[in-house]
Amino acid sequence: MLKLSFDTLSRTASRQVPTNVIRSFSGSAYVFAKAAPKLKDGKKKAKQGFKNKGAESKTAKVKKGGMTHLKFKDAVRSLKFEKSATDFTQLNIKDISYGSLKSITSTVVKYNDYTEKALQDLDSFKKYQYHELFSKPVSMVSNNTLKLDEQFISKLESPSKDNRLCLLGEKGVGKSVLLSQAKALAISKYDKDVILLHLDHPQKLIEGSSDYIYNKRIEKYQQPMFTKRWIKKLRAANEEIFKKLPLTRDISFTAKKKEYNLKKGENTLYDFILYNHDFGKVAPTSAFTFLVEEIMHHSKEVPVLVSIDDFNALTSETLTKYRHTDFEPIHFTDFEMGSFILKLASGELSFAKGGVLLAESKDIAYGHTLPVGLGIEQYDPYYKQHQCDYEVANSLLQNGGVSSMTVENLTKDQCRELYNFWDATGVLRVREYPTNEDYKTSEQIADEQAARRSGEEEEKYVYDPEEQFEKLVQNNFTISSGNPGHLIKTTTLSY
């Protein structure tokens, strides 16, 4: 037993690690380390271990590339391509004016600075209208503008229920442009003393992209963010006229933890819109109702022009993407904004002075509600609701009904005037187009062969810019029948 124990101890001792390779633990490395610098208040400041890139890195600016994820049609609008467009101030383009409307007919006009800002604030200049080709938005005063003045602008002194007009016409004929011209003519006629209420995309009201909440007091759904954004546009476009309109009654509200007490006659309608944030509040409010009542009161002295583009977006699909608590689709008239729009279009809600101007869109699926409501079609009792909403169509027929105006294409002389303007601004490219041998007509080939047999010299082709310009006008007018949307598209393809 003793021998085994001795052997075991011997083997254990032979496997022990030598003392010269054993790691020694010591605190001297940090005991004698240099202390961190102290601040004035006695606190230590730890030195950051970031790499010092030098003084040049502090002033270096990050370069932003000119690329975008958008496609070209959207990119030119997002990147503000109009800033690099040709300046046409030397062309003496006249401003659109109500007083000189007849003298500027069949000419290209622009908008003055005040009108242009108001239209931009209201988003009247829609996408894909190619305004980016020019340094300032332009339009042509055509026979349609004169008809619009006769049927609508001249009647703004009458109640809005008696002055309701809907613009009809093919795609690209210029219905949205006429809406902009109507607002510009109203500003010119009344020297800026006119209230503009414009809705550019009613689709946003029904597409289901906004929040909504039920207001038990008015028994309607409210869309806070949609209403807030729309009111913000109205405030920017009507700032000057809203500052002239005093409140007709006192009102108190709280915004950003601050209480406001606006007084009758002292504060203005602009103050109410500026300080009141209840339009976007996710709770039932009465701010929108108060605003409409104030505008109705002031419409006795100031005309109110209501313009709604793509109006058939509401009539072609009256059931929205929103749902009731029982998961049934909500009708657009169950919304505060939707009910407000239909009341204006039907004349149930009327301003003392003003008018309601509607415009259809051919990009929206055809429905029978609007044609029946305008009296163009007869109502078929076998129509289903998604084909024709009888209640909406019947509302449009009330109070004398909504008049309609078909927008016509441009004449050849107006097309030539439009092409002259595009040529002067560098948008139109008038250049020589050599004829390919494969595309020659049989008459041209026969004439050339006859000339060779007779030994006559072939006539050399001489490029004539004026002749080529006239060919462009003639060919594009024949193809498009004077449709301005088609004309501008064919021009941009070669731009």
Describe this structure in words.
- The chain is an alpha/beta fold and 495 residues long.
- It folds into 2 domains: 94-406, no CATH class; 412-493, no CATH class.
- 37% of the residues lie in helices and 12% in strands.
- It is built from 20 helices and 13 strands.
- A hairpin with a 4-residue loop joins strand 5 and strand 6.
- It is globular.
- Indicate the radius of gyration in whole angstroms: 36 Å
Overall spatial form: globular
Largest sheet: 5 strands, parallel
Work out the oligomeric state of the chains in this entry.
single chain
Between the first and last Cα atoms, what is the distance in angstroms?
A: 108 Å
Structural class: alpha/beta
- Percentage beta strand: 5-15%
- Summed up, the domain count is 2
Give the proportion of residues in helices. Answer: 25-40%
Q: Enumerate the spans where pLDDT stays under 50 for 5 or more consecutive residues.
A: none
GO biological process, one term: mitochondrial translation
GO molecular function, one term: structural constituent of ribosome
Protein name: Small ribosomal subunit protein mS29
Subcellular location: Mitochondrion
